[in-house]
Design brief:
single chain; about 325 residues; alpha/beta; Rossmann fold; 5-stranded parallel sheet; 13 helices; 7 strands; about 10% strand; binds adenosine-5'-triphosphate; binds magnesium ion
């Protein structure tokens, strides 16, 4: 079996690099295009008007980072991402560094902008420089990923400082910058702390998967990924019962679901077979979670009672049933 490993691993890596467009992706694309075109229209008229932003909130594994990166990096108008050695940048996209203090984030941003500064400068000076850099480089949008870290690591005063800094970027009379914030649901606590910030951000709904609504998209994904790996799909995988199991196993998150499809295909290839079946998902789940069959949502009758996020759970026994949801 080991002789299959490099070939199977390459196919799985190639499958994982594919992008599957979802309705959320199309909505994000639309909302972003609207903001971009408004900003461009204002610029053509010489107006430096306040810019609205977008908020992408969903649990870990939903696909936030992937969606936003795809919208920004593969934009049809070829938006310029911040690149070392290049002056102009349409977009600055960064992961909020941890701990996400207002000063620390500002310093990291200046460094990314090629303008490193001594740490003893005040947060105010640092952010003034960030704004000057944004204006010089004509940055249209700032994307901050993992933005929940602003609320996780800061005390009340620092959270307010973060909020006013973010607002002031969008309202700068010299050069306003649009914000795109993505993160886990804790990010909502931060945004909802301030009605003015909340009003300036449009949420793009990244709702949990639902078998009845998303079943067609999920079976299309199963078919497309199996075809890309040149293997056959067992008909049972297109039945609602299996799709429901898969959706629950992925904790209702599209990104996790796609990862599972790719890894289950890897199991087929490792076994030297050519049919993607429930068996491949059973093995894939047990390899991902380290959980026994009694806690495997592709095996257990009452799979909805299982907590699929927990790793290495012991076999259920008296007093140790799967945690009800
Ligand atoms: N539309 C998609 N098509 C193909 N693969 C996807 C898609 N969306 C997400 N994925 C895959 O799902 C996985 C999780 O996605 P991603 O890292 O974007 O999630 P996230 O919501 O940012 O999670 P976290 O909050 O943990 O950072 C990645 O392996 C990614 O490649
Ligand atoms: Mg992410």
């Amino acid at each position: 079996m080991t002789t299959h490993i490099p070939a199977a691993a390459k196919i799985v890596a190639d499958l994982k690099a594919r992008f599957f467009p979802t309705p959320t992706y199309r909505q994000l694309q639309l909302e972003f295009d609207l903001l971009l075109e408004q900003r461009r229209a204002n610029l053509r008229q010489g107006r430096q008007q306040e810019v609205r932003g977008l908020l992408v909130v969903a649990p870990s594994g939903a696909g936030k980072t992937t969606l936003v990166a795809r919208v920004l990096r593969q934009h049809p108008s070829g938006l310029r991402m911040l690149t070392e050695g290049e002056e102009r940048a349409d977009i600055v996209s960064m992961v909020v560094p941890s701990p996400a203090t207002p000063k620390g984030v500002g310093l990291d941003m200046l460094e990314a902008l090629g303008y490193p500064l001594r740490r003893d400068r005040s947060a105010h000076i640092i952010w003034q420089l960030v704004k000057t850099q944004f204006a010089q480089r004509q940055v249209l949008f700032l994307h901050l990923d993992e933005a929940q870290d602003f609320s996780r690591h800061n005390n009340h005063n620092d959270r307010h400082a973060v909020i006013s800094t973010l607002k002031s970027l969008t309202q700068s009379p010299q050069w306003p910058v649009g914000l795109i914030l993505s993160g886990t649901p804790e990010l909502l606590d931060l945004v909802n702390m301030d009605a003015q910030l909340a009003r300036r951000l449009k949420p793009v709904e990244h709702r949990p998967l639902k078998t009845s609504v998303d079943g067609g998209m999920i079976t299309a994904a199963l078919r497309q990924y199996a075809a890309a790996a040149d293997i056959t799909l067992d008909d049972a995988l297109c039945k609602p019962r299996f799709v429901h199991r898969l959706v629950h196993a992925a904790d209702y998150c599209f990104g996790i679901l796609v990862e599972m499809i790719c890894e289950a295909i890897g199991e087929v290839l490792l076994a030297g077979e050519d049919i993607l079946s429930t068996k491949s998902f059973v093995t894939c789940f047990s390899r991902r979670s380290g959980c026994p069959e009694g806690l495997n949502p592709f095996v257990v009758e009452d799979f909805l009672a299982l907590d699929v996020r927990r790793l290495l759970q012991p076999e259920p026994g008296p007093g140790n049933q799967g945690r009800p949801r």
